[in-house]
Amino acid sequence: MMKDHAKLMQAFFVSGEIVGRKKLQKMIYIAKKLSFPFQEKYQFHFFGPYSEELTLRVEELCNMGFINEMKEKKSGYTQYRYTITEEGKSFLNAQAANPMPEVEDCLKDLNTQSSRFLELVSTMLYFEGLDEQELIEKVQKVKSKQNYTAEEIVQALSYIKHLSTVS
Amino acid sequence: MAYSTQKLHEEKVFKDPVHRYIHVRDQVIWDLIGTKEFQRLRRIRQLGTTYLTFHGAEHSRFNHSLGVYEIIRRIVDDVFANRPEWNENERLLSLCAALLHDLGHGPFSHSFEKVFELDHEAFTQAIILGETEVNEVLSRVSPVFAQNVSDVIAKTYENKQVISLISSQIDADRMDYLQRDAYFTGVSYGHFDMERILRVLRPREDQVVIKSSGMHAVEDYIMSRYQMYWQVYFHPVTRSSEVILTKILHRAKELSEKNYTFAHEPYHFLSIFKGAVTVKDYLKLDESIILYYFQMWEDEEDPILRDLCRRFMNRNLFKYVEFDPSKEYKKLNELEKLFELAGLNPNYYLVVDSSSDLPYDFYRPGEEEERLPIHLMLPNGELKELSRQSDIVDAISGKRRTDHKLYYPKDYILDDSSHMEVKAKIKSILGLE
């Protein structure tokens, strides 16, 4: 019951503070691509893989008082910080949800990366069926505005390999 | 003459209750409509189980797909034609992507995709790129045309302007379904001045924007979305029918995994149960097929599958109580135990349904670059995000209302012929006394 909410709560619990909605979106997408059992459905949008379902579920968790959302004004945009509340921890304890211990290392690792870098990694994972050269060309086309450097792309490829060792 | 520019000898028109007429002059479009994959959409309802709440909601994805095509046709032929920011070479691609954008939808696709972890967008791409009649037509335009159509629908095409026409926060898809769903459900929400919006759409480098003089028409459109969501798409009775449908599919899958022998072999489901569905298998599925199995399963030996199918077919749906997870999650754990004691499997008969279970895209002003917002173009050419200019939009694009309901079979709980004591406790918790 409310298993999908509980899985997200576990993600917040193990990640600690998550800064930024974009980062949150990409962290869950990447974890899902690494076969962690998150159920939120993603589609490709202007800024990469995005899940409306995740956005709504996080809003629900905030409205329930299980997640704290702090709004910060930045130059030209608003940034959001997410942390689990004490009530959220109690909810999580009361759930008979299967723990996902192996997701902890993965999410912690993802949480140390910038949202720009995670946007690149998640976009590359979205096109994972392509061979490496096609993948690079595709990313440069769909992300032309982001101006990712060759170095960032190489880093992302190596990070994807690294992720498979922590998952 | 190249196939891509070939016109029909005479324009074809489809009568349509929303747009009055749908006009087809391009041979490619006419040929696509005639393919068996597109004709299959006649057998997939646009609104899934909503017909159990609003009896008129029997319209199909075929109707809707033609409607989206017609809106794009009017934009590219009447509004964008000859504008320097618009590339005429993208015209046919935009029309084809509009027509085919829902091609991969399966029967009752929301529940189906959840249970079997399928993705209609992936099937849309697979149908467009696979060995299908649709692919055969598209490939006659050029060797890369099918891939381009697929990329537009997947939102990965390099020209974002074309994507934005078909899929953005104000796009042809939404403009058609809001009006069409309002018409067929019979509700008085969902109406807005589409002609006005189309007249003020302008192509810009990476997106389609709205002239600021059209702001009030867009406000109406945003309000329509908001009202249709709460009044139609998220209607509690429709949610109940979706809950039962989802549980039927779960049960059938579970039984199959346990090697249960179905009295009526679910031939069409076999590859889906195994997680190995091919495009060919998928295209054989439509809502008539699914309802056929539900009718057969009304006589299955398994009591849960039998009961759920009878409920769905005869519209004996679950009832609901409002549920506040933040205060009542412990109550839910208790109810689960009591349901077990009352002989009801809580996995099938006690269901929390949340607003996030039917994600409907509220207008979002694009915080932190999550989604591209609607941009108004001021007279000096400057772009402003809609909610910064409109108080009405600002008011409904802030903190969203969320909602949770607890669904259960009230008829069984009120039946005192068995488990009286346990049911009395359940009734007390659910407030049925």
From TrEMBL, chain A:
This is YwgA.
TrEMBL record, chain B:
GO terms for molecular function: dGTPase activity. GO terms for biological process: dGTP catabolic process. Residues 61-178 form the HD domain. It comes from the Bacteria. PANTHER family: DEOXYNUCLEOSIDE TRIPHOSPHATE TRIPHOSPHOHYDROLASE, DEOXYNUCLEOSIDE TRIPHOSPHATE TRIPHOSPHOHYDROLASE SAMHD1. This is HD domain-containing protein. It comes from Jeotgalibacillus campisalis. The lineage of its organism: Bacteria, Bacillati, Bacillota, Bacilli, Bacillales.
